[in-house]
C-alpha cells in the first residue's frame, strides 16, 4: 500500500515537473512575442487571445490541475490520463490531448459523475454519447507548484474499486476563512447534474442545509458561460441573494473560477433601480425585528398576511385586470378641439389608440397618440386665414393640448398602485372600488402605509409588474440567466416578475423549505413556484447530502427538524465525525468564572470562547435570538477579544474572526464553531417556526456546536443519541 502510494506520488511529481516546464516555456515564448498595438482587426483578435493565454498560464503555474482521470473510450486503442484543472490549456503542438482539461469540458464530467464499479461509463460529447472504461480517478493537491497530496478515489486495478469519500472528507475537515470557496476538485455527482443542467429551464433546487446550494449555483454560472459561450455573457447574468453581506461572503468564488462581471444584487436593490425609486434603508431591519424580536409572539401567518398576499399570483391577476381596465378607459371623454371650429373626433383618437397603436404598452400608446394629435394640430394650423389667427390658434392649441394630455391616466406605477388600493384621491373614477380579491386587513394596512409614503419590500413585485405592463421591458436589458439563492424567501409573484426580465425561463432557483424562517412572505411549497412555468420549462432537484457539518451536528439538527418541524427533508451526512454537540446550562458555570462573580450567561459565553480558542478555529460565531441581545452581548465582549464583529442588518462586509449576530441573520453563512447562546425555551418557543430558527443556527457550524441555556431546553431538543452530550468538556490536557 505504502509502495503504491510512493510510486503514485513519484509519478505525479514527475508529471507536475513536466507540466510546469511546458507551461513555463510556453509562457516565456508568449511573453517574448511583441504586443500588437496596431489597427488590424485580425491581429488584434490574435493579440487578445495571446493575452488571455498569458493570463491563464500565469494563473495555472501555481496550481495547474487538481484531478486525473484515466479513461479509455470504446473506440480508442489505449487508455489516456486526463488532467483536469480550473482552466483548460491546449498544447503548443496540435496533439490529441490537452495539457490540462477544463473542468467544464464534456469529458471532465466523468470525473464527477462516475460513481465506481466495473461497468462502462459514458458522457455526452458534442459528437454524441461516448462510452468507455474508467481506470483511475485521482485527486492531487498542488499549492504554489508543490505537490502536497495524492489520493486515489477510484482504482479499477484495486480490490475494492468503489469511489471513496476520503478526499472529500479531508477537504471538508479544513477550517474556513471568511469566504465561500470553489469546490471544483470535489463536486459530487448530484451537484454535477445541477451544474451541467440545460440552460433554458427554471431549475428549482430544494437542498438541505449545507448541501452546497450556493456553491453549486456559482459553479453553474461558470459552466453556462463555458458551454453556451455564443449565447450568454457574464454581463447579462445576475445573482439575487438575501443581503449585501452575503454577497460579499460569496464574492470570491466566481473570480476563483475565472469568471468576472456577473451582477450580484438583492431583489429590493435591483427593483428600486428599475423603478427609479429609493427605498428607506431601515425597512428590512424594521420588518425583521417585527417578526424576529418577540419570542413566542409571532403573528399567525395566513394567505392574508400582507407579505403572502402581495407575493401571490392573485394580486398579479388583480393588477393585470386593473391596468387593462385603466387602459380601456384611458382616452379622455369628448372630442378634442384645439380652438373653436377645429374638432378631432374622439372616434378617431379611439381608433388610433385601440387599433393602430394596440400592440404598444399603454404608456407608449399614449405617447404615440399624443404625438399624432400634435401633428394633426400642426396640419390644422396651416389652414389659418391670417398671421394673427395663426398666432392666436398656436397659443390656444398648445394650452388645450396640454390640458388634454393631463386628462389621461397618470401612467406611473406608484400612482396606479395607490389607485388600485384606493389610497389616492384621483380625478378618475377608476377603479370604482378596491378589487374584492384584496383581503380587508391587507387593504386597510396598505392604504394606511401608502398614505404615509411607506413602501415595503413586498410592494416591489406589484410595482415592478405595473411598470412592466405600462412600459414593457423596453430599456431594461433582459438577462441571459438569473440565480436566486435562499429562494424559499421569495414569493411566486417575485419569480413571475423576474421571468419577464429573463430569456427562456433560464433560472437557477435554490432554497431550503426547512430554513423558511421568512414564511410570512416566502413560499411554503415549491409547487407554488413550479406551477408558474409550463412543465417543459421547469425541473426539480433535491440535494439531500450535507457537506458542511460533522455527522454529529447533522444528526443533532435533524432531530430538531423532525421533532420541531415534522419535516421529512432530513440531511444525510458525509462520513465525517467530530466532537459531540455540547449542551451546557449557565448554572453549570466554570469555577473560575463563578469566582469572578460575573453574570452567568456572560461567563458561560466567555468560558466557551476560551475553550474553543485553543482549537485554532478561524471563524467562530455567537448566535443570539434577537439583534438586541446580540448588541448587548457584543458590548460586553468587545473589549476582551480581538477581531470581534457585531453583524446587524446593515453590515455589507463579512470579516470572519469572531462574529456576534442574531440567528436569523446567520442564514447562508458558516463558521468553524458556533455557540448558540440562549438555547432555551425562554427564547425559542415550541412552534415550528422557532424550531426552524434553531435549525438554521445549528446548521451554520462546520466542526463544533455548543448550545448554552439559562432555562429548560425547547421540547424538540432531546438528549438521546451519541451526537450530543451535556456539560463542559474536560479542560484540554487532562
Ligand atoms: N462537493 C463539495 N466538496 C467540498 N465542499 C463542499 C461540497 N459541497 C458543498 N461543500 C461545502 O459545504 C459548505 C456548504 O455549502 P453552501 O454554503 O453552498 O451550502 P448551502 O446548501 O447553500 O447551505 P445553507 O442552505 O445551509 O446556507 C461549504 O463550505 C461548501 O464549500
Task: Set out the fold topology.
Layout: H1 2-32, H2 41-60, E1 67-73, E2 80-85, E3 101-102, H3 109-113, E4 121-125, E5 128-143, E6 146-155, H4 166-172, H5 189-195, E7 202-207, H6 213-227, E8 237-240, H7 244-249, H8 253-256, E9 263-265, H9 267-275, H10 282-292, H11 306-310, H12 313-328, H13 346-356, H14 362-381, H15 387-406, H16 413-420, H17 440-451, H18 460-471, E10 481-484, H19 492-499, E11 507-511, H20 527-530, E12 538-543, E13 545-546, H21 551-565, E14 572-573, E15 581-585, H22 591-596, H23 600-613, E16 619-624, H24 627-637, E17 644-646, E18 657-662, E19 671-676, H25 688-698, E20 701-709, E21 724-726
Helix pairs in contact: 1-2, 5-6, 9-18, 12-18, 14-15, 16-18, 21-25
Bound molecules: adenosine-5'-triphosphate.
Amino acid at each position: 500500500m505504502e509502495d503504491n502510494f510512493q510510486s503514485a506520488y513519484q509519478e505525479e511529481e514527475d508529471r507536475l515537473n513536466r507540466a510546469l516546464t511546458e507551461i513555463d516555456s510556453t509562457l516565456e515564448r508568449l511573453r517574448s512575442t511583441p504586443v500588437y498595438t496596431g489597427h488590424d482587426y485580425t491581429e488584434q483578435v490574435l493579440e487578445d487571445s495571446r493575452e488571455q493565454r498569458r493570463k491563464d498560464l500565469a494563473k495555472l503555474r501555481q496550481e495547474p490541475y487538481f484531478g486525473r482521470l484515466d479513461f479509455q473510450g470504446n473506440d480508442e486503442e489505449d487508455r489516456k490520463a486526463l488532467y483536469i484543472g480550473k482552466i483548460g490549456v491546449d498544447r503548443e503542438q496540435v496533439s490529441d490531448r490537452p495539457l490540462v482539461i477544463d473542468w467544464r469540458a464534456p469529458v471532465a464530467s466523468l470525473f464527477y459523475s462516475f460513481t465506481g464499479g466495473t461497468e462502462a461509463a459514458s458522457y455526452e460529447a458534442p459528437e454524441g454519447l461516448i462510452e468507455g472504461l474508467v481506470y483511475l480517478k485521482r485527486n492531487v493537491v498542488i499549492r504554489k507548484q508543490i505537490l502536497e497530496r495524492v489520493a486515489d478515489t477510484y482504482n479499477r486495478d484495486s480490490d475494492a474499486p468503489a469511489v471513496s469519500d476520503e478526499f472529500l472528507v479531508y477537504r471538508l475537515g479544513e477550517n474556513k476563512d471568511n469566504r465561500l470557496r470553489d469546490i471544483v476538485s470535489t463536486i459530487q455527482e448530484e451537484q454535477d447534474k445541477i451544474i451541467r443542467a440545460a440552460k433554458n429551464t427554471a431549475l428549482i433546487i430544494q437542498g438541505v442545509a449545507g448541501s452546497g446550494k450556493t456553491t453549486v449555483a456559482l459553479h453553474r454560472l461558470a459552466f453556462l458561460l463555458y458551454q453556451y459561450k455564443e449565447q450568454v455573457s457574464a454581463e447579462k447574468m445576475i445573482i439575487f441573494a438575501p443581503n449585501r453581506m452575503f454577497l460579499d461572503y460569496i464574492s470570491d468564488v466566481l473570480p476563483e473560477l475565472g469568471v468576472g462581471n456577473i451582477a450580484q444584487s438583492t431583489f429590493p436593490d435591483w427593483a428600486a433601480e428599475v423603478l427609479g425609486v429609493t427605498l428607506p434603508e431601515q425597512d428590512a431591519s424594521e420588518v425583521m425585528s417585527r417578526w424576529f424580536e418577540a419570542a413566542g409572539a409571532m403573528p399567525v401567518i395566513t394567505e392574508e398576511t400582507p407579505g403572502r398576499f402581495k407575493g401571490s399570483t392573485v394580486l398579479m391577476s388583480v393588477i393585470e385586470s386593473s391596468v387593462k381596465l385603466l387602459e380601456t378607459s384611458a382616452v379622455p371623454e369628448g372630442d378634442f378641439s384645439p380652438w373653436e371650429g377645429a374638432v378631432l373626433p374622439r372616434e378617431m383618437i379611439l381608433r388610433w389608440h385601440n387599433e393602430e397603436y394596440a400592440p404598444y404598452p399603454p404608456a407608449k400608446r399614449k405617447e404615440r397618440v399624443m404625438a399624432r394629435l400634435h401633428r394633426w394640430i400642426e396640419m390644422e394650423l396651416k389652414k389659418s386665414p391670417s398671421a394673427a389667427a395663426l398666432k392666436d390658434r398656436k397659443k390656444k392649441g398648445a394650452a388645450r393640448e396640454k390640458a388634454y394630455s393631463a386628462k389621461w391616466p397618470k401612467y406611473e406605477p406608484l400612482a396606479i398602485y395607490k389607485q388600485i388600493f384606493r389610497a389616492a384621491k384621483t380625478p378618475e373614477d377608476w377603479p370604482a372600488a378596491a378589487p374584492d380579491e384584496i383581503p380587508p386587513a391587507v387593504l386597510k394596512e396598505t392604504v394606511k402605509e401608502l398614505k404615509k409614503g411607506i413602501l415595503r419590500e413586498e410592494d416591489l413585485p406589484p410595482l415592478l409588474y405595473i411598470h412592466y405592463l405600462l412600459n414593457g421591458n423596453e430599456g431594461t436589458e433582459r438577462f441571459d440567466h438569473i440565480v436566486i439563492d435562499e429562494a424559499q424567501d421569495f414569493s411566486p409573484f417575485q419569480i413571475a416578475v423576474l421571468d419577464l426580465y429573463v430569456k427562456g425561463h433560464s433560472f437557477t432557483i435554490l432554497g431550503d423549505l426547512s430554513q423558511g424562517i421568512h414564511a410570512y412572505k416566502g413560499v411554503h411549497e415549491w409547487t407554488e413556484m413550479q406551477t408558474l412555468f409550463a412543465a417543459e420549462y421547469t425541473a426539480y432537484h433535491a440535494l439531500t447530502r450535507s457537506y458542511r457539518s460533522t455527522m454529529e451536528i447533522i444528526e443533532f439538527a435533524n432531530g430538531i427538524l423532525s421533532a420541531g418541524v415534522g419535516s421529512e427533508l432530513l440531511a444525510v451526512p458525509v462520513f465525517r465525525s467530530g466532537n459531540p454537540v455540547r449542551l451546557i446550562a449557565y448554572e453549570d458555570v466554570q469555577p473560575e468564572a463563578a469566582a469572578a462573580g460575573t453574570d452567568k450567561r456572560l461567563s458561560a459565553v466567555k468560558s466557551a470562547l476560551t475553550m474553543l480558542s485553543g482549537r485554532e478555529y478561524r471563524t467562530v460565531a455567537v448566535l443570539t435570538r434577537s439583534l438586541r441581545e446580540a448588541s448587548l452581548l457584543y458590548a460586553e465582549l468587545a473589549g476582551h477579544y480581538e477581531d470581534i464583529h457585531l453583524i446587524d442588518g446593515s453590515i455589507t462586509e463579512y470579516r470572519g474572526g469572531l462574529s456576534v449576530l442574531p440567528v436569523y441573520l446567520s442564514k447562508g453563512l458558516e463558521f468553524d464553531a458556533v455557540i448558540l447562546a440562549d438555547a432555551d425555551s425562554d427564547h425559542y418557543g415550541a412552534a415550528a417556526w422557532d424550531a426552524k430558527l434553531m435549525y438554521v443556527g445549528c446548521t451554520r457550524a462546520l466542526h463544533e456546536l455548543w448550545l448554552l441555556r439559562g432555562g429548560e431546553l425547547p421540547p424538540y431538543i432531546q438528549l438521546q443519541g451519541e451526537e450530543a452530550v451535556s456539560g463542559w468538556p474536560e479542560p484540554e490536557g487532562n
